[in-house]
Amino acid sequence: MKTDFFSGIEPAQYKGTDSTDPLSFRYYDKDRKVMGRRMEDHLRFSAAYWHSFTWPGSDPFGGETLNRPWMHGDDAMELARQKADVAFDMFELLGVPYFAFHDIDVAPEGGSLREFNANLNAIADIFESKMQSSGVKLLWGTANMFSHRRFMSGAATNPDPDVFAYACGQVKAAMDVTKRLGGENYVCWGGREGYETLLNTNLKQELDQLGRFLSMLVEYKHKIGFDGPILIEPKPKEPTKHQYDYDVATVYGFLSRYGLLDDVKVNIEQNHAILAGHSFDHEVRLAYALGIFGSIDINRGDDLLGWDTDQFAMNVPEIALLMHEILKNGGFQTGGLNFDAKIRRQSIDPQDLLIAHVASMDACARGLLAAEKMLEDKALEGPLADRYAGWSEPEPQAILAGERSLEEVAMKGLETSPQPRSGRQEYLEGVLNRYV
Amino acid sequence: MKTDFFSGIEPAQYKGTDSTDPLSFRYYDKDRKVMGRRMEDHLRFSAAYWHSFTWPGSDPFGGETLNRPWMHGDDAMELARQKADVAFDMFELLGVPYFAFHDIDVAPEGGSLREFNANLNAIADIFESKMQSSGVKLLWGTANMFSHRRFMSGAATNPDPDVFAYACGQVKAAMDVTKRLGGENYVCWGGREGYETLLNTNLKQELDQLGRFLSMLVEYKHKIGFDGPILIEPKPKEPTKHQYDYDVATVYGFLSRYGLLDDVKVNIEQNHAILAGHSFDHEVRLAYALGIFGSIDINRGDDLLGWDTDQFAMNVPEIALLMHEILKNGGFQTGGLNFDAKIRRQSIDPQDLLIAHVASMDACARGLLAAEKMLEDKALEGPLADRYAGWSEPEPQAILAGERSLEEVAMKGLETSPQPRSGRQEYLEGVLNRYV
Amino acid sequence: MKTDFFSGIEPAQYKGTDSTDPLSFRYYDKDRKVMGRRMEDHLRFSAAYWHSFTWPGSDPFGGETLNRPWMHGDDAMELARQKADVAFDMFELLGVPYFAFHDIDVAPEGGSLREFNANLNAIADIFESKMQSSGVKLLWGTANMFSHRRFMSGAATNPDPDVFAYACGQVKAAMDVTKRLGGENYVCWGGREGYETLLNTNLKQELDQLGRFLSMLVEYKHKIGFDGPILIEPKPKEPTKHQYDYDVATVYGFLSRYGLLDDVKVNIEQNHAILAGHSFDHEVRLAYALGIFGSIDINRGDDLLGWDTDQFAMNVPEIALLMHEILKNGGFQTGGLNFDAKIRRQSIDPQDLLIAHVASMDACARGLLAAEKMLEDKALEGPLADRYAGWSEPEPQAILAGERSLEEVAMKGLETSPQPRSGRQEYLEGVLNRYV
Amino acid sequence: MKTDFFSGIEPAQYKGTDSTDPLSFRYYDKDRKVMGRRMEDHLRFSAAYWHSFTWPGSDPFGGETLNRPWMHGDDAMELARQKADVAFDMFELLGVPYFAFHDIDVAPEGGSLREFNANLNAIADIFESKMQSSGVKLLWGTANMFSHRRFMSGAATNPDPDVFAYACGQVKAAMDVTKRLGGENYVCWGGREGYETLLNTNLKQELDQLGRFLSMLVEYKHKIGFDGPILIEPKPKEPTKHQYDYDVATVYGFLSRYGLLDDVKVNIEQNHAILAGHSFDHEVRLAYALGIFGSIDINRGDDLLGWDTDQFAMNVPEIALLMHEILKNGGFQTGGLNFDAKIRRQSIDPQDLLIAHVASMDACARGLLAAEKMLEDKALEGPLADRYAGWSEPEPQAILAGERSLEEVAMKGLETSPQPRSGRQEYLEGVLNRYV
Ligand SMILES: [Co+2]
Ligand SMILES: [Co+2]
Ligand SMILES: [Co+2]
Ligand SMILES: [Co+2]
Ligand SMILES: [Co+2]
Ligand SMILES: [Co+2]
Ligand SMILES: [Co+2]
Ligand SMILES: [Co+2]
User: Which PANTHER family does this one have (chains A, B, C, D) (predicted)?
Assistant: First the structure.
């Protein structure tokens, strides 16, 4: 370890289900094969720079609680280097194969965009070296274009074209760095791409701006040969009253409108899903159905709270359904499970950071194993296929293929007297409980 | 009047703002000109058959409260005729120019689809005559494919292709009747086109079924020369856990995916908007921005309740913003303000039905007048234009037109230091209060 | 079995965790000892008459789906007897030791309160005999004073004192029958004790009416020697906009205000808890803290829906925390786990009713076993005791005992410089996951 | 004016309804008599120190936007003095008769509680002088015991008794200063008196700590002769997952449990009301019904957002109902309308601060005038009295007085056949619309 922040702590190991050590894994055994692929290669865990290393524990009603050494000092670049040391210490203690960051998480903004870009590249040099020695890879990079006051009324959707231009400058640099570090995706979360009140908002204009911005980014990605997809992360609200990338369905319509379906996919977060009124499973399944599934920000929200709590995912049944969906569709391609999760502000000990990740990694591994078993048994897929079997017949297939007119089918309808069949929901819920 | 249900009550008249008669209008003066068009022609009010004439006052925890004479008796067709008499009495007492109905609202379902279609056409004969004598027109017709148990797992999205065929038979008849009665639109609300649990749902299959169903309906509409648009009414949930036509943005994506943007628009309901987490104004403005605005189901939900209360719209500020949006876009074309609203189940007197409509019509008229004045003064549009003025310049226009690359704009971004300008939200809220 | 409704189905048996038979128990082994008491005696399961036997599968947008034979016929008393036969068949197939009912669930209302009371007593005769032969006992009885239109504006809180009097007549009969059948509790759910709008509501008057009503019931209970507690079931809304028995804390304040804390406790339902913005565990723990815990309506709501879905509880982690709380406090006294849960309206097969109960009973048994283990290990109680250990010291005890003034403690405060300690939330979440 | 922050702006004047000047009043005419009392004496407006002078415009996803001069500098006491100058400038430009503050809003915390107390008293000296010269009075004072990390796990409810002692020290000083400045109330908002997870929380212990803390404060208030009431401000959640002072009903139960009903009342905030699932009017009416109404934090939340937005109240119909309730109960005693409201973070111009207050004061004045007229006309009170008239009869009065047994009333119930009467909700909504 480079630092003594986690001093005395050993790398987390798989110790089996009898272990009571909170810094050991009970299920996550990275080399264990699941449907022919190593667990580590299935889950593709990524640690997030922002929550673990840039957030001081503050909330709207209170200040810093965590007291991180690298947040206090005068030399911003030196602090950024200390932060990187602790970050890679954590990545190695956890054994996560990936990490992810916003530009401003890792480098000081300085006094100008030029200076920021220089700082960013200086830190990228350090990352390159650390990535090489540790083997930790970059799942994705992104630009934070929502925290600074210049973005208070939006970045791409700002009423001021100068802000749009500034955002172009910033996103270009973040894309360049992501490419240089071998990032497998590039993420856009539109934290201020929305509005506080329609009274001062030209909705159509702002959507067009956003469409143009994304299109330019796609063109640039192709130009520089960045292979990974661009991922939009939907969120319905917070910080703004309404955000344009509301949910998966909204993003799909947006991509369709602006001709971006080939190049842009989604990064789905559980907490954002529930803020939009959807289950996590819904968002994931819909993204697959629409062909835009990209990656996951794994976390959990509080169903009874109306804001983004970004807690560590611990609920095995939900994760099992998530992994079932992902395995069913062939597993992750460029995506992974990125821990967009933060410890509670009362979890002030360094080891709380590790314990939280370990416990959530283990819950994911357990979900993966349950999903594997359900798929092997066709526990859910079997009944599903049965339920829709009627649509495999030639006549229904012809209808779906567009070979029948309303009048033709309506005539047939006059002759039928369809009898409902049980949806068997409670049976299926019981089945799920057998696996989790 | 044909019936004595509303006996002793005179048609509602405009009596000016000093009137305290709850059966008079204080603002709605149908021949008054607003921006060159009669109030009646702007607002295009429609009474809804279902809430006022088919709902007995029941809710999930209680039965009938309203005791309507036409709901009790043995001869279903005779009861349907009595209901029609009362309905047209109400239309005339209110002076609404339009009405709207589901097929099963007006005619008994009988023992088969054939019999239902015959009943529906027999009632349509009566409607034709009543429409002629009263001058009341049909804003839209629709088929109820959600109440009967055969539709418990969906109509177009049912796992059983026989139900799909049955739905084709029913929707064809409803479209035929709507055309015959001169309906100006045809509405689809997918009350069971969704799911209760993803455990038993093939999401992609169901979306494809729904896309095919709508496409067939569009083809049929063209074939028979039905001029009006088909309108999807978005609703996120209730009765199902999740409905496919979640909100305006979702419907847009769906129409885009299945190539239906030319023929299908949306019918937006306030209560459905807030259940989806959106303001009414948002949904309307978005529909205009996306080019799919069709019509309005005017009502109001309770912001603190999680179900569709379908109350009468009374909140003038919200209606003023609605009418501002509609006027700004040239006013209704085929659409109108349909009262998809029901009296509370404790409002058991016949005159409660009339008082509720009159009070809400008056709130709409007041909102219209406020909107006219705001537009005349450019009270909101002026500041809005100022805010986005920068985008009218040649360079920003070139960006929007796709004539600039990311690198070009990024270079410019390096030279700017954008300074935020006030969003002036409280100022604009104060302005709105000056008009309502 | 008395009827052929569940024909061919054998009583559910414990078959161990390898069983895949949905009509067998994998965890519920009724004679197994848990902390010295049989599982059956811990869980005290009760089946609910209403959801399983009186609900036809309707919802606000659709009618009957379930087609129960005892819901169709002319002789209301004969149908009530058929229903009782099927109900006791189910109780025996499931092996539940208790049931619960509303008066109108079991007997036809007839044309007057006198007639209803006679019908109710006639069915009670049948129940007595069936209870004796089957060994099934009555967990609680209650009066439905919310479904009939006479109660549309409340029962005890009605603006019309005649309705109050009618409610007294009905509740007296229900209490009499409950006592006669050996009911262990009497429950009051105030389904219409609330309001639709404050515009027509005298809140203080209605609270006083409700207080008086409960007081009279308590006096009567003592008079007739009914031993069990009266239980109020909190619910915040639905069917009304606002219900007076909003949540546990509100009921506590109400009981305190009207001097009812000695005789009235609460019956807590999971779905009502979340509608009020609380976790189930919160409501249970608060009821114990305030000394008013009575019993449980075990079910689950949908966190993303705003109405009472009354689904079967399947969520083992939540149930484990519930049972942990109950075990920690000595286990149920008069209360139990009453299945206030209904199958989905698409679950139309008779066996769906059984499968749902079996799966949920099993989830409860599994939660009980997890709770037992957590208590044995002090997995949660240990860290909790450590966290508050400081308050066991003499000086803090003196403060709590009221022996110190603000000035005295404030002086001490001037000398301290308290250092926060980690709340360890993620650690504890990981611990819970070890047990479920 | 002492500072040039609002340079060039004149005090807001009443200019009548034709005024379009956003810095003038259209309704608020402070000397106008309403029901025999000056408008200013009715509304008792108070400006809040925190939102307007200590909040930099940050939110959980972004930093400072407002760039206030007094927030940047090295000499904390000098900055506090500058802030006081600007604050009193604003109070005078608005013409508000009151202000309110938390201890840490006005004085730097320094390095110890002793130092903080000294700073607080130094600023109080300045306030005394400014209050004398301006005539602005103190509506209430309070202690911020939620922002500092020492309070992360609660102040009075902290697991560490040392934090409890520290809180005693802080609250005593804040009470002393409030008394010295002639504060008319003392407010307690328990921002951390709640929990993040029940897994680490001893609920009963914490409630007892909170009860003891409040009791000590009440004893101290009497000892020093502070005349005003202590007011608890209910809020259900945020920052914590669950706060003990959830809503008015919960606070009532708490006060009752700990014997505090004589000395403690509530300060009700609209935004907190809706976060708890209640209308503002509900909370106010309930507080009057329970005898614990104290004061109002006037603001508005966003019904579609799940956090405390603290926007300026602009909604005239809601305010009219609020003022109707307050006037009906005799008007404010020690309480008033405190602007616990903040401008949006995009409202960065100094005049936005003034415009927001002026617009909201005007909306309040308009609501007051509407309420006066409704009361004069008995527009709502007349129908309400009619609805409950039956309870004025001798027999119902005897029931309410506890002079009848359940059996006696039940006997009467057997003879009645109550007929429901219309609740007339839509009629009453139309009536309200006549006044607003
Ligand atoms: Co995320
Ligand atoms: Co998040
Ligand atoms: Co509608
Ligand atoms: Co609706
Ligand atoms: Co219940
Ligand atoms: Co329920
Ligand atoms: Co407040
Ligand atoms: Co607030």
Answer: PTHR48408, XYLOSE ISOMERASE
The pLDDT mean for chain C works out to 98
Percent of chain B with pLDDT over 70: 100
Going by pLDDT thresholds of 50, 70 and 90, the confidence category of residue C206 is: very high
C427: chain A residues, CB-CB within 8 Å: 22, 352, 355, 359
Q: Give the model's pLDDT for residue D2.
A: 87
Which ligand is nearest to the Cα of residue D238, counting in written order? 8
Known binding site for Mg(2+): residues of D? Answer: 233, 269, 272, 297, 308, 310, 340
Q: What is the mean pLDDT of residues D143-149?
A: 98
pLDDT score at C1: 77
358-397 in chain A: CB under 8 A from chain D = none
pLDDT above 90 for A2 = no
pLDDT of D1 above 80: no
- Of B29, B105, B176, B247, the catalytic one is B105
Label residues B141-154 b or e (16+ Cβ within 10 Å = b).
bbbbbbbbbbbbbb
Residue A169: phi, psi to the nearest 5? -60, -40
Strand A37-38 to A293-297 pairing = unpaired
In a mutagenesis test of the C interface, which of D103, D117, D158, D162 is the best target, namely the one with the most C β-carbons within 10 Å?
D162
| pLDDT for residue A1 | 77
Q: Supply the pLDDT for residue B2.
A: 87
CATH domain A33-376 topology: TIM Barrel (3.20.20)
Task: Compute the average pLDDT of residues D200-212.
Answer: 98
D269: nearest Cα among D289, D246, D241:
D246
What is the rounded CA–CA span in Å between residue D84 and residue D71? 12
Report the 10 Å Cβ neighbour count for A373.
Answer: 16
Contact D360, D26 (CB under 8 A): no
Residues in D closer than 8 angstroms to C201, CB to CB, are 384
Which 3 state secondary structure label does DSSP give A142? strand
Residue pair A143/A176 in contact by the 8 Å Cβ criterion: no
Residues of D in contact with C254 (CB under 8 A): 249, 253
**What distance in Å separates residue C237's CA from the closest CA in chain D?**
9
Architecture of domain C36-377: Alpha-Beta Barrel (3.20)
Is C105 catalytic? The answer is: yes
Question: What is the domain partition of chain C in residue ranges?
Answer: 36-377, 383-435
Instruction: State pLDDT tens for residues C305-323.
Output: 999 999 999 999 999 999 9
Cα angle D331, D51, D120; round to 5: 90
pLDDT tens digits for range C390-414: 999 999 999 999 999 999 999 999 9
Cα D280 from Cα D283, distance rounded (Å):
5
